[in-house]
Amino acid sequence: MLKPLRRLYDWTMEKAADPRAVWWLAAVSFAESSFFPIPPDVMLIPMVIARPDRAFHYAAVCLAASVLGGLAGYGIGFFLYDLVGQPLVEFYAAQDAVAAVAEQYHEYGWWIVFGGGLTPVPYKIITIVSGALALDPLAFTGASIVGRGLRFFAVAALLWKFGPPIRRVIEERFGLMTALFFILLVGGFAVLKLAL
């Protein structure tokens, strides 16, 4: 399992200087906000490490694509919940969480979207549920911009400031870093179940 991830990391580091890498970053950011399980950080981090001069550009690409993908997720929830949204919620085993939060979603929805955008909680579930429960689209978009913006720009700023030492740590401890990433990803799903 580590070998394919290591190849992905090495490929991303090589492609970070390629102008087309930005399009892949945008595609992953868009897809992750509505259905794709892998967060854009997987591409953002090595791209910023390889090209710190483009750190904030990459963060802006992540933000714009993620918010647009979030609106697609909102649309899935609003228009296609029974056909597409519910199977996605079931795939991520979040049915109980959705049912538990439904009554209070309109009161706390902005904070839920903001928190989902900022943390490792699976953001796609938040976007789909926001549409299914008809959260105010302006509130949804604003919370997405703030939450996702803080997340991506904080990652970019830290890597811009401390990039070379972090790159050495990642390359020397790739197995440990991969394990931590998957622990955080699984933890995000657990937090979603408990919090919602």
Describe the structure in your own words.
This protein is an all-alpha fold and 196 residues long. It has one domain. Helix content is 83%, strand content 0%. The protein starts with a helix and ends with a helix.
Number of separate structural domains: 1
Query: In angstroms, what is the radius of gyration?
Result: 17 Å
- Overall, the morphology is elongated
Q: Tell me roughly what share of residues is in helical segments.
A: over 70%
**Average pLDDT number:** 80
Largest sheet: none
Number of β-strand runs: 0
Topology as H/E string? Answer: HHHHHHHHH
> Which runs of at least 5 residues are low in confidence (pLDDT < 50)?
none
Total helical segments: 9
Distance between the termini: 31 Å
Protein name: DedA family protein
GO cellular component, one term: plasma membrane
Domain VTT: 62-158
Transmembrane segments: 21-38, 58-81, 108-126, 138-162, 174-195
Question: What's the arrangement of secondary structure elements?
Answer:
Blueprint: H1 2-15, H2 21-32, H3 41-50, H4 55-91, H5 95-101, H6 105-118, H7 123-132, H8 137-172, H9 174-195
Compact description:
With 196 residues, the protein is mainly α.
